[in-house]
Structures are given as C-alpha cells and as structure tokens.
Amino acid sequence: MTIVPKVLVTKIGLDGHDRGSRIVTAALRDAGMEVIYTPPWQEIASVVKLVLEEDVDVIGISSLATDHLIVPKLIEALAAAGLAHKPVIVGGIVPDSDARALEAAGVARVFHPGSAMQDIVNYIRAAAERSRAAAYPV
Amino acid sequence: MNRSVEAPVLDAAAARQWQREYDAQIGEDRVTANRSGIPVKALYSPADWDGTRYLDDLGYPGQPPFTRGIYPTMHRGRTWTQRQLVGLGTPTDYNLRLKELLGQGITAVSLIPCNSVFRGYDMDETHAELLGTCGTVINHAGHMDEALAGVDLARVSCAMNDPSPFTLLAFLLVTARRRGVDWREVTGTSNQSDYLSHFVANHMFYRLANAGARRVLVDQIAFAIEHVPKWNPMSVVGQHTQQAGATPAEAAAFTLATAIQNGEDCIARGLDPDRFLPRFTFFFDISVSFFEEIAKFRAMRRLWGRITRERLGARTPSSWRFKFHGQTSGADLTRQQPLNNVARVTVQAMAGIFGGLQSLHTDAYDEAVSCPTEAGARIAIATQNILKEEAHLTDVIDPLGGSYYVEAMTDAMEAEIARVMAKIDAAGGMYAAAESGLVQRMIGESALRFQRQVDAGEQTIVGVNRYMVADDTVSPGQPKPDPEAMKRHLASFRHWKDARDGAGVKRALDALARAAESPHDNVMAEIVNAAEAQVTHGEICACLRNVYGFGKPLVAV
Fold this sequence. Notes:
The complex is a heterodimer of chains A (138) and B (557).
Chain A: E1 6-10, H1 19-30, E2 34-37, H2 44-54, E3 58-63, H3 71-80, E4 88-92, H4 96-104, E5 109-111, H5 117-135
Parallel strand pairs in A: 1-2, 1-3, 3-4, 4-5
Helix pairs in contact in A: 2-3
Chain B: H1 7-10, H2 12-26, H3 54-57, H4 74-77, E1 81-82, H5 91-103, E2 109-111, H6 115-118, H7 141-147, E3 158-161, H8 167-178, E4 188-191, H9 195-200, H10 210-227, E5 231-232, E6 234-237, H11 239-243, H12 248-268, H13 273-276, E7 280-286, H14 290-310, H15 317-320, E8 324-328, H16 340-354, E9 359-361, H17 374-390, H18 404-426, H19 430-435, H20 438-455, H21 483-499, H22 502-517, H23 523-532, H24 537-548
Parallel strand pairs in B: 1-9, 2-3, 3-4, 4-5, 6-7, 7-8, 8-9
C-alpha cells in the first residue's frame, strides 16, 4: 500500500528551541509527506484535538530542554481519547535512561541528535503505513 | 634571511613557480568555503593582505579601529571572566552549587532560571514535572535572596538570563536594598535582554509582543543608567540566531543590526548615546569553525567602532568598544562519542580567546546528551584554566594579527557582514525585518543548507557521518532536582502567597498596569516597586501581557 503519510510535528511544554522540528519538517515534506507543523508550547489537550481533527498518522514530539518528561501525560491523554493506535515519536535531547522510560510508557521510538535524516524518514513512513492500516482496516 | 615582507609578492616568478607546483601536485583541488560561504584558498600571501594600511586596518589594542582588541592590555592585563551558566532545582540547590563553583575559580555569578520562569509563569501555573529540570525556580524577591545567600552583591558580578520584563533584575535590586547594598555598587548583566533575538530565533525567552518588549527594554536601559550605573542592561544576542542555523556572518549582521535598532530606540527616547552605549554588551556563539570565528570577532570590533561613531553619534571611546561574552556552540556537539566534545569545546574556546572575548562560557561535553552534569561542568572550567595557564594563550595580545590568512579573512567577513546588514537596512531596520519574517527565512534557509551538507557528507561531523563506531554513547544520566524538595518549594510558595499583604500586591499591580499604558512613566521603576511589594514574577508578566499582548513568534516553515 502506498500512502501519503500525514505527520504532526509539534512541541509541548515550556521550551522553544525549534531548529530540530523545523529541519525534520522540511525533510519529511521533501520526502513527499504531509506535515502539520505547530509553533512550540502546545498544550497536551490541544495536541489531542489536532490529532483528532487532522487525523494524522504519526505524532512527532520535539524536545530539547526536558519537555520530554511530560510525554507520558500526552500518551495517556491520547489513549483516553481512543487514539492509542497513533504512534508517538520523540526527537531531541533525551538521556538514555529517560528514553527507556518513554518507550516503556508507550513512545514508539526516540530519535537522538545526529540521527540520519533518511532513517527518520524511513521509520516514519513505515509507522504511518501501520498506523493507517490500524485506523482503516481493509 | 632579512628579506622584506614584500619580497614574495614582488618575486612574481617565485609565486608562479609555487602555483605551477601546487597545481601539478594537488590533482583535483577541493573547493572549500567557510560556513559563511566565503571561499578559502590554499595559501595567503601579501597579495591578499600586505600590511601597508596597518594603522587604518589594525592599529593598536584599545584604539580604533579596535581590530586587535578593545583594551590596551587585553588578556595579558586581565583574563576573561569565567562565567559558567548555572541553574537547577530550588534556590537552595542553586546556592549550594554556586558556592561549589566559586570555590573552583569561577569569578562571576550566572543564574539560569527554570523554563517556566522563561515562559512568564509562576511555579503553580505549570507542569510540576518540569519544575527546576533546566534552571532554578525563582518567583519572587525572597527566592533571589535565598539563591544568592552569602554572595556579596557589592563585589560579585551577577549575570542573569532575564528577558523582558526583567523581573530577576528587580528581585536582585530588592535583595540588595534589603541587605543595605547601594545600587550604585551592584554590577552584572541582563543577559537575554534582546527581545528581537528571541522573536526571530530563541522563542523560549519571548514573553511580550514586540511593541511592548521594545518599550520595556528602553525603560529598563533608562532606569539602569540612572539608578544602577554599573549594570549592563543591554546584552545583544548573536548566539540564538547562530544556534538556530544562521551562518556566523549572518548572526554577526543580525546582532549589529539589532544593536543599531536598540540604540536608535534609546536615542528616540532622548537618551544620550555616550551614557547608554558603554553599557551595551554582546553575547555570541563560538562555533568550531576556528579561523572564521576569529575573523568574525575581529571584524565585528571594527564595525561596531564605526557604527557607534558614525550612526549613533557616540563621542567617547568607552561607547565604541565591542565588549562580548562568548559561549561555545552547543549545536556543534554530538551525542555520538560525547567525550569528543571536550576537543570541540577546546577548539571553540581557543577561537573565542584569539577573537578577543571579555567573558567565556565553555559548554559541558554532555550537553548533547542531557542538561549538563557537575562532572561535565568541571571539565569545561578546567579547559579554560588549561588554555590560560598551561598553554599560555594569554601571553600575547591578538597573537594571530598580521597573519595573511587571518587578516584577509577578517576583511572578507567584514564585507560579508556589511552585505547582510545592508539587506536588513533595506528592509527598514531590524525591527521591521524581524516583523516581516525576512530574518527568520534567512536563518531557516541557512540551517537547512548546513543540514543538507551534513546529510550529503560534504561537512564532516566526526562520529555522526564519518568515523562512526558502534556502542558510542556514554550516557551520564539526567541530573534532576529532588522531587520532594521541589514539592516543599511549591508548598512554601503557596503558603507565602496566601500570607502576603493582598491589598499592597493589588496596588502595585494597578500602578504597573497604569505605567505600562502611559507613554510617560518608566515601566521598569514600577516593576521594581512591584517586586518590593511582594508581587510575583508570574503576576508581573501576566499584568504586562494583559497590556501588551503575549509574545507569539513568527515561525516561517
């Protein structure tokens, strides 16, 4: 199945460093994906609303300065809204021990600094295909 | 052996012979350019810079055009200030850490508040999980007093990351007054007072909409030169734009354009340039692009010396000096093989030192993995001490001055910075250029260009796109504040708030709102009064947000 993946790239919490989220957005668009990009400081509730309204396949959260610590709250809120099948990916500065905790909390994958852009693109494409298939079983 | 410097160029036959031999041996030459896009040749000679305009182009340290340094003695007289950024947890945590660092040779205090403070909130208005994870939670003057317990405010210089509306400066002044310290003795810098750099690049610090931020900044400068004359109210920030992806020349141009904008705003308010310009400082990123950074700083000194005289009308030498703090670039550091970052930080620090900085922060090697650990910060400070005292980098003033390459590159960087500045001028100055999104687009394009060079392998990053090794990370683990201590800090804050003189708080907030609405009052004076009346950081920010609007960055994607 060939689909055009639809990806949300956003930042929650308090930090505003957005070089990473902007560069990843450009790379995903270059790879032919549709990207919903938001400025930083989104509320968890507003991210859930956006996922519902835009029906995105994959949720990408960018974090530089410890905002990854509230991603488990986002995962819970997504599950409460019946969106547990939507993969959440985190990119940015996340210490190893925190990355393991995030994966245990349901984050599909943590991309660290220096990740090859092609790896990110490939992973998101595959995750989007699985997500779309789960949302719209044939 | 006693040939004059002109000899190689005059000896055209020798030059031609070298070129022939070079071409024959090099095969296909690589095309090189620095990060600012300036071509880099294989060899520089008097054909590129011949020293005949020595006095006009270089001169002597402490004299225009300041290429060789802003003071006659430079690092030989007084080495740079070692100013490590510090901030984590509660004010008590901060105070403990500060005293440790003061014992290790740090000569000035820095204070990084929690991200919730940067966003303009008190600790009871945000996610408890995030409190103190990236800075110290300071919400009122009493917190500042705890954080700086035992620090003599008349002797130690305090630099605080304190964006508009400058609540930390207000808390510091209240603390000084309570301790009987004369404000005229208080020294330090309002780091991050440059709202334009936050609007275009580091959005985390952006709290008030531009028009309000512009007004409050000029009020804060006017207040400081009147009441706290040793304070530096203006720190023009080039670091954010370069970290966000601007080239070194672009970042330099945006910063000088911002300084011109703020200077013109102060003059429009009726302030005398020779009173405020001596209190303007700059804050820069130092990337690992060694010679380019050295040339950048040398060129900026020359440009600022001219701008202050020709555009801002300054008449005294202290207004012409380009004083800057440098921070080694975190964006150059890698998560892969993180100990390699010690080498990168060393090269960056050397570029800043040879560039003639006045103050230096060296990044901890583990910044690309987590917020810096204490062990990482210790190595960063030791790096400065090694460069200073073992490697003797401070023995000679501007030791690379006169190098054909460095001088030619200084000229080329100056021309490139001036070219970008002309674009900003053509767009109506920095305020207009930022509001139109021009600056943000330029930064975004440069960030993307660099990332594509890395992805294509044209720009090597050791351990990332070349020389990779398996199992390459050393994860030092995220330092986190003690959650129980943070809970107690929050509970005591709530209790303190309930016990305050509520009527006094309301009166101070009403006075602040009135000042903010009136074009004649000084808003900073009312912020200090509010801090004195136990108004909190979040309340001051909310009051001004209400008048001026919330800061929303213009993000071009």
